[in-house]
Design goal:
The complex is a heterodimer of chains A (about 190) and B (about 150). Chain A is globular. In chain A, helix 1 packs across helix 2 and helix 8 crosses helix 9. Chain A is mainly alpha-helical and about 190 residues long. The longest helix of chain A is centred in the first third of the chain and has 23 residues. Chain A folds into 2 domains: about 100 residues, RNA polymerase sigma factor, region 2, helix turn helix motif (Rna Polymerase Sigma Factor, Chain: A); about 50 residues, Arc Repressor Mutant, subunit A (Orthogonal Bundle). Chain A starts with a helix and ends in a 10-residue tail after the last helix. Chain B has about 150 residues and is an all-alpha fold. Chain B has a domain of about 55 residues. Chain B is built from 7 helices and no strands. The radius of gyration of chain B is 39 Å and the shape is rod-shaped. The interface between A and B is large, with 61 and 41 residues.
Chain lengths: ~190, ~150
């Protein structure tokens, strides 16, 4: 049984009201949903709330999954849409992380063994991400942090591959501009 | 220190950030216990929205149905026995008049007393009603007092 088949089986359990199904899906996607929410919203508390709401939606909407894409793509799409709607409702952009970059790393990250240099780099990249527009930030995070292929990004954002490539290129340009335009020593090495 | 290159096209296999940066950014984990909290919310807050909840609701409905009819049977067993057919027909006013003064006081203004014809006509009917049951009770009570 492939990973996607296992995820599909867990979704079917959700359809029957079996809460253990969402436990299986959280084991697979919990970190990814939390990380993506945090990178899009810029706040751990909001990422925590968002992750809860997203998994409740996954449970409620499990029956609507049509199987036209992988479960992971569907979960990514729900996450991006939820965060986008949250930001629209609140009519604000994510927090600026420049001053609190290091503090924003949670204990889980520290336990993951990231050394001080890596933590500084993470904080610096996130401070730049927070200054990107939502659309650019989303596509940048999906590609650079989550490692999604262009095709996956296209399915998540409902965009053709060509549009994904052009928007990703623009997002990288903006990121590079922010990095070079900053007066701080960002230490962010970009290609 | 900063290290930037001129922009160059990237294919699907290439990334903008370095492998180390990407690895560090991906090290973030969900807080411990978050999955358990989500499951608790699903169990605690949304039982009625799940199929299991619907089954529980159906069971509760069946229990309510059985309780209702059980109570009906109990009430019917506790109610006075039907009047035998050879029993003399009495009017409501006669039944009430045979009751004690306190009962009469509480029964003053009851619609049944103002329509004794209806009472007399339906006294022997197999269809029971609260009014008939009341009149039967009062009549039996009057007989005992006598």
């Amino acid at each position: 049984m492939t990973d996607d088949q296992k995820n599909l089986a867990a979704l079917k359990r959700c359809c029957t009201g079996d809460v253990r199904g969402i436990g299986v899906l959280f084991d697979v996607f919990g970190d990814r949903v939390y990380r993506l929410s945090f990178n899009l919203l810029g706040c751990h508390a909001e990422a925590d709330d968002a992750t809860q709401e997203i998994f409740l939606r996954i449970f409620d909407k499990a029956g609507t999954f049509a199987g036209r894409s992988q479960v992971s793509t569907w979960v990514h799409r729900l996450t991006v849409n939820f965060c986008l709607n949250l930001l629209k409702v609140r009519k604000r952009r994510p927090l600026t992380l420049v001053d609190g970059g290091l503090e924003l790393q949670n204990s889980a990250e520290r336990e993951a063994g990231a050394d001080l240099e890596s933590r500084e780099t993470v904080a610096q990249v996130r401070s730049l991400l927070a200054r990107l527009p939502f659309e650019a930030r989303t596509i940048f995070v999906l590609r650079e942090i989550e490692g999604c292929s262009y095709q996956e990004i296209g399915e998540i954002l409902a965009l053709p591959p060509g549009t994904v490539m052009s928007r990703l290129s623009r997002a990288r340009d903006k990121f590079r501009l922010l990095a070079t335009g900053s007066e701080e020593n960002l230490g962010v090495k970009v290609k | 220190m900063k290290e930037y290159r001129e922009q160059e096209p990237l294919d699907d296999e290439e990334f903008f950030l370095s492998e180390r940066q990407r690895h560090s950014l991906r090290a973030m984990l969900a807080p411990a216990g978050l999955g358990a909290r989500i499951q608790q919310r699903l169990v605690g807050l949304r039982p009625a929205m799940t199929p299991i909840g619907l089954r529980q609701l159906s069971a509760a409905g069946l229990l309510g149905f059985l309780s209702f009819f059980g109570a009906q049977v109990l009430v019917s067993q506790l109610s006075p026995a039907p009047i035998p057919s050879n029993r003399p027909v009495v009017s409501a006013s006669e039944s009430v008049s045979s009751a004690d003064s306190v009962t009469q006081y509480h029964l003053s203004g009851v619609a049944l007393l103002e329509n004794s014809n209806y009472y007399t006509a339906t006294l022997d009917s197999p269809e029971s009603s609260p009014e008939i049951a009341l009149a039967n009770y009062l009549h039996q009570r009057g007989e005992k007092n006598e």
